[in-house]
Amino acid sequence: MKESEKIVSSVQIEEKKRAKEKIQLFLISAASVIVFLGIWEAAVRLSWVNSQFVCSPSEAFMAFVDKLTQPNPDGAVLGVHIWESLKLALIGYVAAAVIGVPLGLLLGYYHTFDKLVNPIFEIIRPIPPIAWIPLSVIWLGIGTTAKCFIIFLAAFVPCVINSYTGVKLTNSVLIDVAKTCGASRWKIFITVCTPSAMPLAFTGIRVALGNAWSTLVAAEMLSATAGLGYMIQQGRALGRSDIIIVGMLTIGVIGAVLTAVLNKLENRVIRWRAK
Amino acid sequence: MSVDGKEKRVKLTLKNISKSFYARKEIFEAVNNISIDVYENEFLVILGPGQCGKSVLLNIISGLEKPTAGEVKFPSNDEKKVGFVFQKTAVFPWKTVMQNVEFSQELKGVNKARRREQAQYLIELVGLKGFENSYPRQLSGGMKQRVGIARAYCSDPDILLMDEPFGALDAQTRYQMEEEVLRIWEKEKRTVIFVTNNIEEAVYLGDRIILLSECPASVKEIYTLEALQRPRDYVDTEFLRMRETIEKNMDLAL
Q1: Which of A56, A65, A247, B190 sits at a 20 to 30 Å CA gap from A159?
Q2: Across the interface, which of A192, A196, A274 has its CB nearest the CB of B137?
Q3: What whole-number distance in Å separates Cα of residue A204 and Cα of residue A108?
């Protein structure tokens, strides 16, 4: 009894140590942010840098609070900008995932289809999405459709490539298992290759999200009447660095939130994988 | 052939099977003119040195590969149903134990309640009760191979093909699984064709042992082990004698 109590107490001490270390690490991270903001604030207030070029963090925060309710000076409150951007990004992105993932899976599975599509895909693949902007303006004008199209292109490529590779990497023994169980070619695709490709397909979907979100800003900088990219652009035109910084940080935070949501979804879909 | 006065029924006939591959611009002969009769409900072991074409032979029987020459005949009925237990642990990592076992029945469109009942029986038979909803990553190597065995049984096969199923297991688990596979076979009699390169395993399991030569594989000798009573003892004199006889006759793998 004495011996086991000793073990329990030593385990508890270990556990407490670990918890303490965790707090310390968190404090280090927090300190890094605070010091960074502090130096920034000081640099502006003590006029080390020209306040025309960059606002202080406190000013940026005030601008953020202001933008929640004030449509001035760029024509819309922050919520409207966010909604406008999210709408564009999600339409283009979801379309890319819904078309890109099945296409990649099929290309990986059907050799003839692969050979048919691959040469064209290989030429189009390295073209950066923003290089499509002029053409899409000619084709689709400067409205929502054109921007969605550019975002679609940016998100489409990683969805296709990763799903394709996922199918190619399917363990051939598992395909043999399905064959000996009497599965047809299509059934093997559905029951073996597709689930086996899911982890890589999700990697593609995650990369695509980053691409979509960053391309969005580029698209909006060209032509828009609302949206986070538009807001940043207006900030520049008006010489308001606080608006620019609020826009940039909002883009960053929303990008991080979307990635976190996607990770949750991935863990649900691919529950079978080892953590 | 007859045992207990009963005529043994031939379940499967391999007739002059040969298989060659075209590899690196050279013809590579894997199997050379093998003819075997396999009897109903016997435990047939195909023993041969590593890389000698044993797996190729099983793939031909299962229909995964076509022979270059010769034929595989099922005299009883034309439709062949084989269950395959693979060398590497070939369980679907995204399916639970239950879903893995019922896979073949699901493909056939058997209704859920019925296939669940059957799969449950087999899961219990292979000793995995309580792990029905576990994913393969939570199982040990031996347990995964049990899933493979249950899945092969679940398609209700006429013939069970096992391709070095315990090759990747540690020695202790291997002995345990050999006993298990015999226990399962006694309970659910099937014709089993078991491929191995391990002489001890062959003598422990087989009713008959077909000894193959090195590549290209041909039948070198057929041993009938009916004199050895089951359960067999690894250190029994007769067991050891048989082991030695085969050992002397077996080609070395390079």
Answers
A1: A247
A2: A274
A3: 14
